[in-house]
Write a structure and sequence with these properties.
Blueprint (H helix, E strand, L loop, with lengths): L29 H14 L6 E2 L5 E3 H7 L5 H6 L1 E5 L2 E5 L4 H10 L2 H4 L3 E10 L11 E10 L5 H16 L4 E7 L6 H14 L6 H9 L10 H8 L10 H17 L4 E2 L11 E9 L8 E7 L3 H4 L7 E7 H10 L10 E5 L2 H16 L4 E3 L6 H11 L3 E5 L1 H6 L1 E6 L5 E5 L3 H10 L2
Parallel strand pairs: 1-5, 7-8, 12-13, 12-14
Antiparallel strand pairs: 2-4, 3-4, 5-6, 6-11, 7-9, 9-10, 10-11, 14-15, 15-16
Bound molecules: adenosine-5'-triphosphate (ATP) and magnesium ion (MG).
Adenosine-5'-triphosphate (ATP) binds next to strand 6, strand 10, strand 11 and helix 12.
């Protein structure tokens, strides 16, 4: 026998069956992913978001400029390779790609405001942990062209409603990062403070003091958190327009009924991230990887990537983390066959295939048995598939056009006419 080939570390298979179990993860099945995805497809367009898809491969340069050289992602997590002279990277996130597409297709000349949503795989070479993978899926939204604060509040309300609908337990955290007018002063004050306590920081944060001091605030190392707790706060440095913006967001959230907590530790390290930042943090069920979605305003990004001076704001949500939470709650959305048809012989098999075809044409899910087995085993198979009804077809049924449709949950038998099967099934299925 040839040697087995295993999946790549940090990637995972999501199967429709109950055999997928890894570490202490509950069984995450494809149905949990469908719940997350379908709820986004249903909800986001109600707010005017339209789906956009960009390639997995982009020029490396896009992420170096769009995410920033001093970030963990660009510094050590990207899958980058040489494509015969061009350096390309498998996208670690989608915002930079969407902004690239927005600029490349001059979208701002066609519409003053753009609302896009996306769904797809992202790639980061991180340490594999529960809720942290090297290939993972994000669903997110981006809004370009509106300076806020109304759009900021609208996005946060969308995220709030989405997670509420899915019954995910979470808290919405909110902060502001100021802008080009006020942040530099804050950065200086923060740097001075961090330098005075440098010896208490982790190695990474000691470097961050000079490259990206704001990032020290969200370091997960407990010693760094202690230092961060005593750091000067952005709030004290906000310029008047940033203050007004932030107050506006909070007032609107109040009017929209969105509960939130102010969290000065919520930061993005780069200059083109401005003002509003927000995160939805699961309050149970995810352990240390508890951030379900993170978002924020990036008023300098479009310009940074060579486009016009256009403001933007968006969030990205981790689908695996959401699916994990749904799996823990035992929630799933699965398509089950309505009817399972088991023919006993060859003549019945041909009729079974034709009946299944008619049922599907009528929009009813149907499966036929492809194996010879006694009626008892056929019923077991129907049960395992989660079918609502089972139909065993023998010589007698074909001759008389009458058959018994067995309702698997209750054991009730309904006599039906084979030539009118789709109508009969629909009538019984809607009857309760
Ligand atoms: P974290 O602090 O958890 O590393 P991040 O700041 O790197 O998050 P973002 O880049 O803002 O995360 O991505 C948004 C969301 O995408 C995260 O909140 C999380 O739900 C999900 N996510 C990010 N990285 C991973 C990963 N490696 N595996 C699974 N999900 C991820
Ligand atoms: Mg990360």
């Amino acid at each position: 026998m040839s040697q087995k080939i295993r999946g790549v570390k940090g990637t995972r298979d999501v199967l429709p069956i109950d055999t997928y179990l890894k570490d202490d993860d509950p069984w995450v099945r494809i149905g949990h992913f469908h719940l997350v995805e379908q709820s986004a497809r249903d909800l986001f367009p109600l707010y005017g978001y339209r789906e956009a898809r960009t390639p997995v491969l982009e020029r490396t340069e896009l992420f170096v400029r769009g995410i920033g050289e001093v970030t963990d992602i660009v510094g050590k997590e990207m899958y980058t390779f040489d494509d015969r002279g061009d350096s390309v990277t498998m996208r670690p996130e989608n915002t930079a790609s969407l902004v690239r597409a927005y600029i490349e297709h001059n979208v701002n000349q066609q519409e003053p405001e753009t609302k896009w949503w996306y769904l797809g795989p992202m790639f980061r070479r991180e340490r594999q942990q529960r809720g942290r993978y090297r290939q993972f899926t994000q669903i997110g939204i981006e809004s370009l062209g509106s300076p806020g604060p109304r759009i900021d509040a609208e996005q946060i309300e969308l995220l709030f409603r989405w997670l509420r609908t899915l019954e995910i337990p979470f808290e919405m955290h909110l902060n502001t990062l100021g802008d080009a007018a006020c942040r530099p002063k804050y950065r200086e004050a923060l740097q001075a403070y961090l330098r005075s306590r440098a010896s208490e920081l982790c190695e990474d944060c000691q470097k961050r003091i000079e490259t990206n001091p704001i990032r020290v605030l969200d370091c997960k190392n407990p010693k760094c958190q202690q230092v961060a707790a005593g750091a000067p706060k952005m709030e004290q440095f906000l310029c008047e327009p940033c203050k007004v913006h932030f107050q506006g967001v909070q007032e609107m959230l109040g009017r929209l009924g969105v509960e939130f907590v102010l969290d000065p530790k919520l930061v993005r390290g780069l200059d083109y991230y401005t003002r509003t930042t927000y995160e939805a943090i699961a309050t149970s069920g995810l352990g240390s990887q508890s951030t379900v979605a993170g978002g924020g305003r990036y008023d300098g990004l479009v310009k940074e990537l060579g486009g016009p001076d256009i403001p933007g704001i968006g969030f990205a949500a981790g689908v695996e983390r959401m699916a994990l939470l749904l799996a823990q709650q035992g929630k799933e959305r699965a398509v089950r066959p309505v009817v399972f048809i088991a023919p006993l012989g060859d003549a019945e098999a041909a009729r079974a295939d034709a009946l299944a075809q008619q049922l599907r044409a009528a929009g009813l899910a149907a499966e036929v048995s492809f194996r010879k087995a006694n009626p008892g085993n056929q019923l077991k198979r129907a049960d395992a598939l989660g079918a609502r009804f089972a139909l065993v077809l023998g010589e007698q049924e074909l001759k008389t056009d009458r058959a018994k449709l067995k309702e698997l949950k209750t054991g009730a038998q309904h006599e039906v006419s084979l030539s009118a099967l789709p109508d009969e099934v629909r009538r019984l299925a809607t009857a309760g």
